Amino acid sequence: MDLEDLKKTAENLEQRIVGAKSETRLALQPQFTRVLEKMTAAGEPVPARLRRLDSALIDEAIEARFDNLPV
Length: 71
Description:
The chain has helices spanning 3-18, 22-41, 48-67. It has one domain. It has 3 helices and no strands. The chain is elongated, with a radius of gyration of 13 Å.
């Protein structure tokens, strides 16, 4: 996948994630993170908005794991 494809994939995922419900956001998080990691590894700067979205998704995923723990 070339850099232009990575950018397009990241932007498409961003659009899907922004308008999605929690379950879909959590399902797309690993794929989104991998695309951003590939961009970074290829030397492509990742826009701040995408990094913020990734960070928010990771936080949501962590919180979702704790929501399922018995008390």
